[in-house]
Amino acid sequence: MNDVDAVSLRALRLFVAVLDEGSFSEVARRTGVAPSSVSRVIQQLEQQLHTQLLYRNTRALAPTEAGLAFSHYARRMLEQADEAARTLQEREQLPGGLVRINAPVVFGQRHLAPWLASLAERYPKLTVELTQTDDYVDPLHTAADLLIRIGVLNDSSMHARPLARLRYRLAASPAYLAQFGTPRTPEDLHAHRCLVFKGSSGPQRWFFRPRHSEQPWQAYSLRGPLTGNNAETLTQAALDGLGLVLFPSWLIGEALHQGRLVRLLPEYQASITLEPSTLAALYPRSRLPSRNVRAVVDFLVEKLGTPPYWDR
């Protein structure tokens, strides 16, 4: 073990405190030790690091250039040590207090709201503040402890706990198929009524490729009697026989299980993006998840299951 390995957290705390207070005597008064003891700890720290950390005179203390640089590392190490200690302490406690969750509107209605009572029963001291929005939310500045997001994971500032991989299903109602027939290939869709979601970047394209294949995706720009920016409205239109929809199974899985919608082109993979889409729980990388966040995420993983219940 070299000298640097032996640097103690106590020495780091006293060093940072001296920088903040600018005085050995003030730090001694606050910590209940003799000023000479504080001075001796700092001297030992300088000897271990083989560098002078402080300029000393009769009126004040000031950090050297090396001391100022070392202070940044010291503060970071103390923050990490404190956070680790809090995490270990929290593991011994039951979740309690406020946890703020942000989730998409429809997913929150379908797959979070039904479990809130069970979550409250398991953790009676936990208070949930659930905000549902489909608008973009800046995860580093929003007042949320946990974000539930659906889509391509590409934000390196966030830690992601995947909850489920999104699987898209092409579907139509039995009434529609009885009237207009069943498409057999993606090319047949040009002759069908396609109900297309239109977001801020325009109408979504639909992508298909043979199932169990790594062939390139083929893109299709399709049209029909209804284009809209609300997935629930388009789903209802499909249930009423207006046309075909391509939506994730978490949205239309129940209707498929009940036979109100029929899955089409099952021998093809379907998607609305060329990159894999995921349902995930997010929190900033700069923070360790609190016991409340861990409890909620573990609860969701348990309730959704693998594969998620809407894909079984």
Automatic annotation (TrEMBL):
<dbReference type="InterPro" id="IPR005119">
    <property type="entry name" value="LysR_subst-bd"/>
</dbReference>
<dbReference type="Pfam" id="PF03466">
    <property type="entry name" value="LysR_substrate"/>
</dbReference>
<feature type="domain" description="HTH lysR-type">
    <location>
        <begin position="7"/>
        <end position="64"/>
    </location>
</feature>
<keyword id="KW-0805">Transcription regulation</keyword>
<keyword id="KW-0238">DNA-binding</keyword>
<keyword id="KW-0678">Repressor</keyword>
<keyword id="KW-0804">Transcription</keyword>
<dbReference type="InterPro" id="IPR000847">
    <property type="entry name" value="LysR_HTH_N"/>
</dbReference>
<protein>
    <submittedName>
        <fullName>LysR family transcriptional regulator</fullName>
    </submittedName>
</protein>
<dbReference type="GO" id="GO:0006351">
    <property type="term" value="P:DNA-templated transcription"/>
</dbReference>
<dbReference type="InterPro" id="IPR058163">
    <property type="entry name" value="LysR-type_TF_proteobact-type"/>
</dbReference>
<dbReference type="GO" id="GO:0003700">
    <property type="term" value="F:DNA-binding transcription factor activity"/>
</dbReference>
<dbReference type="Pfam" id="PF00126">
    <property type="entry name" value="HTH_1"/>
</dbReference>
<dbReference type="InterPro" id="IPR036388">
    <property type="entry name" value="WH-like_DNA-bd_sf"/>
</dbReference>
<comment type="similarity">
    <text>Belongs to the LysR transcriptional regulatory family.</text>
</comment>
<dbReference type="InterPro" id="IPR036390">
    <property type="entry name" value="WH_DNA-bd_sf"/>
</dbReference>
<dbReference type="GO" id="GO:0043565">
    <property type="term" value="F:sequence-specific DNA binding"/>
</dbReference>
